[in-house]
Amino acid sequence: MNLGIKLLVAEDDPNLGTILKAYLTQKGYTVYLATDGEQAIDIYHEEDVDACVLDVMMPKKDGFTLARDIKQTNSETPIVFL
């Protein structure tokens, strides 16, 4: 079942990222997984994501900086921090 909701998950821990992606995909979400903040912002600009799940501590760009960049692009994008 595809809910039509696209999520950006930014998590640098490969185990947690894989588990989150698998679980959310199983629940019907389309999930884009990024392993660092720079990759996440690139995905955010390339894909039309509906919401973001962000790790706070990531390489290249931390979750708070990433959230600020996302909100500058679209202040309505929902963000959940891990």
What do you see in this structure?
This protein is α/β, with parallel strands linked by helices. Helix content is 41%, strand content 21%. The protein has helices at 14-26, 37-46, 63-73, and strands at 6-10, 30-34, 51-54, 79-81. The longest helix has 13 residues, at 14-26.
Strand order of the largest sheet: 2-1-3-4
Total number of helical segments? Answer: 3
What is the end-to-end distance? 26 Å
**The biggest beta sheet, please?**
4 strands, parallel
Number of strands: 4
Helix % is: 40-55%
Strand content: 15-25%
| Low-confidence runs of at least 5 consecutive residues | none
Mean pLDDT: 96
Helices and strands: which structural class? Answer: alpha/beta
Morphology call: globular
Helices and strands, in N-to-C order?
EHEHEHE
Radius of gyration: 12 Å
In brief, what are we looking at here?
41% of the residues lie in helices and 21% in strands.
Describe how the helices and strands are arranged.
Elements: E1 6-10, H1 14-26, E2 30-34, H2 37-46, E3 51-54, H3 63-73, E4 79-81
Helix pairs in contact: 2-3
Highlighted features:
82 residues; alpha/beta; four-stranded parallel β-sheet; 41% helix; 21% strand; globular
